[in-house]
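Figure S4 source data
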Amino acid sequence: MATEPAALALPSAGPDEVAVTLQVNGETHTVVVDPRTTLLDALRERLALPGTKKGCDRGACGACTVLVAGQRINSCLTLAIMHDDQAITTIEGLAQGDDLHPVQAAFLECDAFQCGYCTPGQIMSAVALLDEGHTGSAAEIQEWMSGNICRCGAYNHILDAIQHVAQGGR
């Protein structure tokens, strides 16, 4: 008669939840999260900001791009607790009321999206790219946007939109 193997000790559910203050789109939000919660999940699930998309959840597609202190990051690769009290901008925070951000307006004008799933991340990366000054040539823009994938293939229109804004267009 075979004996049952000794029961394996199961790991605990994890560390206790912690309160994090997130400065999102100019508003202060205090959320209670598991310390392992990504910034992406905190934005989508705790703050009900669905514009930031969950694409690959591995930092390879750019759909989750947001700005933290003006720098673009993949929000799926960082923990919410790492951004306590830092300025975070999501796609929902770009427009000023009914006035679209110039990049948002250019994406519409240049038809720089098809299905639209990658569009928020593309726009957030484009805003950062313009602020960083990486618009010297089409090749430079393409290189600095290379972390954002468009499965529909709207790259030429995305490039047109970014160049339009870089050249002073609205």
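Figure S5 source data
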Amino acid sequence: MTITRGTKRSSPRATECGCLAHARRKFFDLHANNKSQIAEQALGYFGQLYDVERDLQDLDADARRQMRQSRAKPVADALHAWMAAHRLKVPDGSATAKALDYSLTRWQALTRYLDDGTLPPDNNHVENQIRPIAVGRSNWLFAGSLRAGQRAAAVMSLIQSAKLSGHDPYVYLNDVFTRLPTQAASRIDELLPHCWRPLPAS
């Protein structure tokens, strides 16, 4: 997951934001397969971090950041120290080492959400949105050509973006395709899902 920051006068830069759910999954699988006590302890820390998130989901960004700093950051710091200590005790190449290394090598990205109330702790929401596309990805192998696949991806992105913006995809696309031939190129962004407004009824 990345966020892009910048201004019109400066080049935007991508900043990596790690997915806490992916880090947790490494330990979940380790515990499911081996009943690892280390994995069980790690899951306890992750559980505390998600407990905080459940308590602040209805807060605004500033209040969310403050609560993350006061409640989640101490847990995250303790988790990092715990991981670093246990990493010294396990052999390289082991399943436990791989689970620990996944988080330790991505720690800055994984905890970036603690300093920004607008960021989610994981990528679950986005992954849920694209799951219908991912489930059918074998079908996209038969789009016909690279260009056809790119066009299909663009259309599916428009449809999903329209849903996220609260629009009926059929109404949105029908209006866009009607207006597109006469829409000035300088105003084409008005037809993007997050900017689109239906024309008033005549």
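The helical segments are 20-34, 37-56, 61-87, 95-104, 107-110, 124-135, 146-164, 169-179. The CA atoms of residues 179 and 191 lie 9 Å apart.
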